[in-house]
Amino acid sequence: MVILHIKRGDESQFLYETNVNNSVDDVVRDIVAIFNGRLKVTRICYEMEELQKHGTFLPLEMQGLTEDQIKDLKLEDPWAKRCAPVGYIVSKDEMGRRCGLAPPPNLQDVLKKAAETAKEIISKKHVDLRKCLTQKDVFRALDELRGATKIVFPAGLPPHDPVRMELDNVEDLSGTQAANEVIDPSRACLWACGKKLLNGNKLSDHLGKNDKSKVTVKLCSASEGAPGREPILTEDERKQLMLQAYRKQEEWKKLEQDDDDSYLDSKWADGQNMKRQFHGLNDISWKPVLKK
């Protein structure tokens, strides 16, 4: 099986294992699903942090309003008490986005641990560990988050809550930065070795038939154009090379500054030392002859 090191720009994303006989279309579709799935998990984990602190999402018409404005307009959140967790605590949201009926500390830990587990499942650290990512891993992370919300909020979440919308795949990302990060599967493409992998071809048409190789590929949208080529040296290799050059430069500086010739008195600098050894003239002590 060939290993594809998936990058978005210059940033590593995950490793993907496939067969060179698979079509480019199927591979691109699968990779995009994993990439977008990881983004979904990340968005849910962010919203889950707010969910555990301040409770469920307010209706859109109530968001950003002060308590006095809500009273003047006679607005009410019909979902706050209905969806509140058992033993909830009041924790006001200064941003005015959530109802303020937060889970108790023990249930907050359930949401927190679920988010940490989900992040670990899709972590970019798996690239260094040489562990490949699949759609099953993404589904496992989503199931972890879904199970935690059901435990903490047995009555469910409001239909307009971002966590529920994400889990139900009805999220609306229009006008957000997250919308720019998601890749449209119909416009996605892969680049390897400075060349685009063409739809309708097999991977072997571009990567060869060696099924035991590792290739760095970049995931792009068709509207972005060709990505930059991979550098000849990795960042760590470049740092090591610069460090060696610096050390060598410092050694030359020390040699230029050192004008001491005392080393010439050492045995290893004596050109006649070997000759005396052959003739047995080393370590000869001279004593004065006493006359009688």
UniProtKB/TrEMBL annotation:
InterPro entries: CFAP298. Signal peptide: none annotated. Pfam families: CFAP298 (PF11069). GO terms for biological process: regulation of cilium movement. Belongs to the CFAP298 family. This is Cilia- and flagella-associated protein 298.
